[in-house]
Design brief:
Length: 402
């Protein structure tokens, strides 16, 4: 046992140039005796990927967008890093026996294929791609059980729940309380929110994240996705998963038990803590981060979410209750609508309207397999694209397919 603990854990980071990937590399940078980055992947940011590969001397670097393959191959030539391109390469490399942990931090549905490949190889999954469980939760958790693959949550809220459960000693969970910052529009009225531009929606008051997840936070769809993710991660019935708005973002989530006791996990908003907890589990390692000073924190406040202002939250509960491929339809429609909003093609509330319309018009399948999930995603993206076209009066130029 001592020998296993002392060996460096070899980590593959999918989406290494994004916010989570960069912070994961900072964790590895702080603990070079415990972790080793052996594989990195990115979609478009080839220059950043190149710099990361050189700093960490990784064995493999994968650029998913083939247009950049020649540039990064030439830049890394002679440095001992094998360069590949495409999702097939990602799926092949994450199955390498030398890899211990796969951190999946790719954005959106694009993370599903590689996560499934890593699960089938029996890897420990540090899951930062919530859409994987949203689109195919039952399939993914079933595969993890079949292949003895562990799934450790990296989202701050789910990491908090996971940490709280470590002290529960198997006690029955009464409720999960997912905390939400409320995003940039918590204090705005509905009329103000309806006119919100992307520049305003991207100003998150607490967290620094990528543009897609930041817009999801503004609509509260991010919390809706987390509800679905929590249902699969912790095998808790949807009616036992509650959302509470907590603007200070100090309490990252809470677990309530049958006797009324509530265990909470607290800390400053810093994604490196849940990333490090997943990579080092079950150990807790030191981290150079801002520590809580409770006297300076002062008051912590809590509010019920406002469904009229943030209808996306209700859509997520609806999709989870319907089951089947409905969460996948919801997720695909959200990805397409958020992309259109970021292009200034639709308004803020058009996002939830498009999602709702796609959930009504999409082809429902009660018991989909993994192939059906990929087909559902394609169909729902196309359906959402048609609705966006009608709303914007333009032709969709972005390719939402992953």
């Amino acid at each position: 046992m001592e020998k296993e603990v002392s060996r460096k854990r070899r980590v593959a980071i999918l989406g290494s140039t994004g916010s989570i990937g960069r912070q994961a590399l900072d964790v590895i940078r702080q603990h070079p005796d415990r972790f080793e980055a052996v594989m990195l992947s990115a979609n478009n940011s080839w220059e950043t990927l190149c710099a990361q590969a050189l700093e960490f001397h990784v064995k493999d670097a994968v650029i998913c967008n083939r247009e950049h393959f020649g540039k990064i191959r030439d830049a890394l030539s002679g440095h001992g890093t094998s360069v590949s391109c495409g999702m097939d390469a990602v799926c092949r490399i994450v199955s390498d026996p030398e890899i211990d942990i796969v951190l999946t931090s790719m954005v959106g549905f694009s993370g599903l294929e590689s996560t499934v490949a890593a699960i089938k190889a029996g890897k420990t999954i540090a899951l930062a791609n919530k859409e994987t469980l949203v689109a195919a939760g039952g399939i993914v958790t079933g595969l993890a059980l079949k292949h003895s693959a562990s799934i450790l949550p990296v989202d701050s809220e789910h990491s908090a729940i996971f940490q709280c459960l470590q002290g529960a000693h198997g006690a029955q969970v009464e409720k999960i309380h997912l905390t939400a910052s409320g995003g940039p529009f918590r204090t705005w009225d509905r009329e103000q929110i309806a006119a919100a531009r992307k520049e305003q929606a991207l100003r998150h008051p607490k967290w620094k994240m990528g543009s897609k997840i930041t817009i999801d936070s503004a609509t509260m769809m991010n919390k809706g996705l987390e509800i679905i993710e929590a249902r699969w991660l912790f095998d808790v019935a949807p009616e036992r998963i509650k959302v509470v708005v907590h603007p200070q973002s100090i309490i990252h989530s809470m677990v309530e038990f049958a006797d009324g006791a509530v265990i909470a996990q607290l800390g400053h908003p810093d994604m490196r803590e849940p990333i490090q907890y997943a990579l080092g589990f079950p150990e807790r390692l030191g981290l150079s981060s801002r520590k809580l000073d409770f006297a300076s924190v002062g008051t912590l406040t809590f509010f019920d979410p406002e469904p009229d202002k943030f209808p996306a939250l209700g859509l997520a509960y609806e999709a989870l209750e319907k089951g089947g491929n409905m969460p996948c339809i919801m997720n695909a429609a959200n990805e397409a609508a958020v992309a259109a909003y970021l292009q200034d093609r639709i308004g803020f509330y058009d996002i939830s309207d498009i999602i709702s319309s796609c959930m009504s018009d999409g082809l429902f399948e009660e018991d989909p397999d993994i192939d059906a999930i990929f087909e559902t995603n394609r169909e729902a993206l196309a359906l959402a694209g048609e609705k966006i076209d009608r709303l914007s009066g333009k032709t969709v130029t972005d390719n939402f397919q992953h």
